[in-house]
Amino acid sequence: MRKVKTSITVDSELWEEFKSRVGSERGLRALSRAIEEALEEEVSDVLVVKALEKLLGEGEVPLDVTPVKPRVATNAGEAVRELRGARL
Fold it and tell me: Could you name the domain of life of the organism this protein comes from (predicted)?
């Protein structure tokens, strides 16, 4: 992974608190990694999609659902009434 050096502008009190927490938990050398983790958390949905695309390859995901007939005759109304009665 290629790294990029950047500059940001943040509230000084916020920065000092962040730096203090990271420094006490991991050491100040871990500050860049902590910022990277915060950014990853913010865009985690994009990372998940990319990981799934990588696993699935270039192929399209099948979205067809095939209905299945139950092996045993069922009655949804009776099943719901039975479950509701069990709660009382």
Answer: Archaea
